[in-house]
Each structure stands twice: as structure tokens, then as C-alpha cells.
Design a protein that fits this description.
Blueprint (H helix, E strand, L loop, with lengths): L1 E6 L13 E6 L2 H11 L1 H7 L10 E5 L2 E2 L16 E6 L17 H6 L1 H4 L5 H10 L1 E5 L5 H11 L3 E5 L24 H12 L4 E5 L8 H5 L4 E4 L4 H14 L3 E7 L2 E7 L7 H4 L12 H4 L5 H18 L8 E6 L4 E6 L21 H4 L5 H8 L3 E2 L1 H9 L4 E5 L3 H4 L7 E3 L5 H4 L8 E5 L4 H12 L5 E4 L2 H8 L8
Parallel strand pairs: 1-5, 6-7, 6-9, 7-8, 9-10, 14-18, 15-16, 15-17, 17-18
Antiparallel strand pairs: 1-2, 3-4, 3-5, 10-11, 11-12, 12-13
Helix pairs in contact: 1-2, 6-7, 6-12
Bound molecules: zinc ion.
């Protein structure tokens, strides 16, 4: 038993003989309120319902803590000199916003009202969100919904790493950008949209490519990283930097109709390398640019990433640490795989071999396209040259090695279609003495086709440098890009 004082709010002082504070002996908060009711029986009816529970509109604070958020509630023990404050709702039934909401302005209290009434968030949680610093890598499909929801939820500081500009083909899924933003840096477009959602946001733009040279310096300033990248080198870079700096890495990835999400946090569970020790060889897994992605899919996965981020900040619920969530949009099915920490993981395992950031392009087997093509000695022709030679009536066979559905988007009239996968079985139908120019969307697949043809004994074969994208830029701006 300790001596505590119970502070009585003005409307209830009529039941305590006008006293604003009552001193009494008690061992717990509940006992203090019971003793208070014994001393002033008229008060009981205002504090407790028939079933003996506190009335829903009465909040009780032990010192500065709302007892609803203390593990033991009314059973919470009290110490000598503690203050118990009774805070009833005032007219209209609104929750009283007294001293406990310090640091939040009246505007913030209005804005975050739906959070403040959630016991799991409340004013303490809202202040934690305001203090939080979250870094998003990429302002694309995943970064769009993730950053918008985090800004709206009141995360105080959002950093964004992106060096791209907005293209029309982004708008199908990157909802943070609008039609009028086409051509602008994504960073500027995102900043404007996020500050419109929440003007009190502290936005920190990093208009650079995340590299082994700058990643540690950038990430060190943040509490949590949200990985919205679309390529393997950056994914491994983000993972390794987060492990080295001991930051949680909220992971999401998307392809066609399927998505994945997890939280990698080496001090509490596995990292991305525990899941995939090495990346697939380049070209084996198509990118979204090559394979497509359903517009809403990044919205779903990016919102899951925002959800995990908020939970990490608030310290509530069960996060995806140690779990890989798989989403199939066509079958409308979520599945979950258990992830284990790999004791032999090269970065978070028992004897790590990676102690600093490495060359991620080389690790992923990627060399700059120009170097690759020069080394393979692929003869090329520019779009302008090809146009001139076709116009001059040269006898050139143009082979388009894209897929049939891509032809519906754009094509050259002169081209014959042989999808790359069917080229090996179609060689016998081609005359080795003809002159060929091979084309595709970007010039990558056609480069492979040129190599294949030359190895098969075709000598007069050229690659359309930059593909149909270059044709659109140099020759025919009306040709759609995709
Ligand atoms: Zn690991």
C-alpha cells in the first residue's frame, strides 16, 4: 500500500465535496479507484458501470500513462507519490485531448483522429510515427503507394532515392505521378504529391542511383528502409547495407500477376541472402519492362510494405520477419512460407564473408550493355541508317524477334516476325546469303539473335542499335514506345 493522489476533474468535483485531489492508500490503480468510491459513494456510479468495469467514457491515467496501454490495466501497481488522473469525456462524447497529447498540434489531432482512437496507435503511437525516419528506395510502382500511405499516416520524415524521370508508360501503376508530370524528375513529382497529402511531412530527396559508394551514408540516417527496387544489383545492395547497419528492410517485389513481401531484419530474423544467396543469371528472369505487370499489383504489395513499416514503427502486431508472403492476383490467393536464418549466410551468418559493400553489378553478372556488345563484336546499324537504306530500296530482310503480342503495339511494315525462341528452328528457312537486320524493342534480344545467326554461318547480319525505341526517337516519333 502506497500513498497516492487521485486528481478529480472539474465536472466530478461536486461528488468529492469540491476537492480537486484526494489522497489515499492503495496498491493498484483499481484499488485506488475503489477506495475513492468508498470515500465518496456518489462517485461510483459515474466511474463504474453495473458490471464493475470502468465506464467507456472514463479514461484513467497513472502519471502520464493511459492505463489502457499498460499491460495490467487496472491491476497496475502504484508507487508512493504517484498521481492517478481521471479524465472523463466532455459534452458530445468526444475523447478529451488534454495534456497527454502533448507534441501534437490541434491540426494534427484533427488529421490523425482515426489513429488516436485506436488503442494500438493512440497519441504515443502518433508521436512515434512523427519521429520516424523511413527511406524508400525507388519512386516507382511499389514506392508510390508505400510513400503515399506513409505520408498520410503521419510518418515524420520520408527519404526517397530515385534518379528517373516520369514516363508515360509509368502511369499505368505509379500512381504518385500524374499525366502532367511526364518528363519531370520522379523525385519532384513525388515531393509535390506527398506534400499535398501531408504538408507537415519532412521530405528528403536523394536524386542519385543508390550505389556501393553512397548507400551506407544515405541509409544510416534512417530507421527503416522500404525496398521498391526493380533490379537485382540494387536489391542485394539494399539488403547488404541494411544488414551492415542493422536496419529493417521492408521488401516487396512484383512480376506480371504475382508479388512477394517480407521484412528482412538480420538482428531478428533472416535477410534476403538467407532466402536467395545468389541472383539468377542475367536474362533468365525477365524484368517488368520485358514481362509486364498488372497495374494494381504494385498497389497491393506496396500497401503491404506500408503496413509492415507502420507496424515496425509502432511495435504492434506480427511483422513479416521470418515469413515470405506470396500473392497471386489471378487466383486471388495469399500463401506464406516460413523463412529461416541461414547460419552460412555470407553476410548475416555465423562466419560472414561479406563485411563491406561489394560490386553488385559484377555480383549479378551484369556488364554495361555497350561493353558486352563491343566484346561480342555485334555489328550494328542505327535506326537512321536503316531507314535510309530501306528508302533507297536496298534488299534487306528485317527480322523482328519480339513476341506476337508486342507487334500489336508497334511494328515496322518491312519486318518478318520470328520470335527469339523460335529462331533456332527457323534457321533452315533463311538464306545465308541474304542481308539481315534484326530488331526488337530495345536492341537486347536482337543482339542475341545476331550472335545466334552469325554462329550458324550467316555473315551479313546487323543489329538495330537501340531497337524500336531508337526508331521512335530517330525516325518516327508516332511509333508508340513501351
Ligand atoms: Zn542472411
Amino acid at each position: 500500500m502506497h500513498n497516492v493522489s487521485v486528481l478529480i476533474p472539474t465536472p466530478l468535483q461536486q461528488y468529492t465535496d469540491g476537492r480537486g485531489a484526494v489522497s489515499l492508500e492503495a496498491g493498484t490503480v483499481g484499488a485506488a479507484l475503489a477506495n475513492l468510491s468508498a470515500l465518496h459513494p456518489a462517485l461510483r456510479h459515474h466511474l463504474f458501470a453495473e458490471d464493475g468495469n470502468l465506464r467507456a467514457f472514463v479514461n484513467v491515467y497513472l502519471n502520464d500513462e493511459d492505463i489502457r496501454y499498460l499491460d495490467e490495466g487496472l491491476q497496475t501497481g502504484v508507487g508512493a507519490g504517484d498521481e492517478i488522473r481521471i479524465v472523463p469525456s466532455i459534452a458530445g462524447g468526444a475523447v478529451t485531448m488534454t495534456g497527454d497529447r502533448k507534441d501534437l498540434s490541434a491540426g494534427e489531432i484533427r488529421r490523425y483522429a482515426r489513429h488516436l482512437i485506436l488503442p494500438e496507435v493512440g497519441s504515443d503511437g502518433q508521436r512515434a510515427l512523427k519521429r520516424a525516419r523511413v527511406l524508400l528506395v525507388g519512386a516507382g510502382g511499389l514506392g508510390s503507394p508505400a510513400s503515399m500511405y506513409l505520408a498520410a499516416a503521419g510518418v515524420g520524415t520520408l527519404g526517397l532515392v530515385d534518379f528517373d524521370t516520369v514516363e508515360e508508360s509509368n502511369l499505368q501503376r505509379q500512381v504518385i505521378h500524374g499525366t502532367r508530370d511526364v518528363g519531370r524528375p520522379k523525385l519532384e513529382s513525388a515531393r509535390q504529391r506527398l506534400l499535398d497529402i501531408n504538408p507537415s511531412l519532412n521530405f528528403e530527396g536523394h536524386g542519385v542511383r543508390l550505389t556501393a559508394e553512397n548507400a551506407l551514408e544515405i541509409i544510416a540516417d534512417y530507421d527503416i528502409v522500404v525496398d521498391g527496387t526493380d533490379n537485382f544489383p540494387t536489391r542485394y545492395l539494399v539488403n547488404d547495407a541494411c544488414v551492415l547497419l542493422d536496419k529493417p528492410n521492408v521488401y516487396g517485389s512484383i512480376f506480371r500477376f504475382e508479388g512477394q513481401a517480407s521484412v528482412f531484419y538480420a538482428s531478428e530474423g533472416p535477410c534476403y541472402r538467407c532466402l536467395y544467396r545468389e541472383p539468377p543469371p542475367p536474362g533468365l528472369v525477365p524484368s517488368c519492362a520485358e514481362g509486364g505487370v498488372l497495374g494494381v499489383l504494385p498497389g497491393i504489395i506496396g500497401a503491404l510494405q506500408a503496413n509492415e513499416t507502420l507496424k515496425l514503427i509502432l511495435g504492434i502486431g506480427d511483422t513479416l520477419i521470418g515469413r515470405l508472403l506470396l500473392f497471386d492476383a489471378l487466383r486471388m490467393r495469399f500463401r506464406e512460407l516460413r523463412l529461416r536464418t541461414d547460419p552460412e549466410c555470407p553476410i548475416c551468418g555465423e562466419a560472414p564473408t561479406i563485411r563491406e559493400l561489394i560490386d553488385y553489378e559484377a555480383f549479378c553478372g551484369i556488364r554495361p550493355a555497350e561493353v558486352e556488345r563491343a566484346e561480342m563484336r555485334i555489328p550494328e546499324i542505327t535506326a537512321t541508317e536503316l531507314k535510309a537504306r530501306l528508302d533507297a530500296g536496298h534488299d534487306i530482310r528485317v527480322l523482328d524477334v519480339r513476341e506476337p503480342y508486342e507487334l500489336e503495339i508497334c511494328k515496322l511494315d518491312a519486318a518478318e516476325l520470328i520470335p527469339l525462341g523460335q529462331l533456332p528452328t527457323s534457321l533452315s528457312k533463311l538464306n545465308k546469303d541474304d542481308e539481315f537486320v534484326v530488331i526488337c524493342r530495345s536492341g537486347r534480344r536482337s543482339a542475341h539473335a545476331v550472335l545466334m545467326l552469325r554462329e550458324a554461318g550467316f555473315h551479313n547480319v546487323f543489329n538495330l542499335s537501340g531497337g524500336l525505341l531508337a526508331w521512335s526517337d530517330e525516325v518516327d516519333p508516332s511509333m508508340p514506345k513501351y
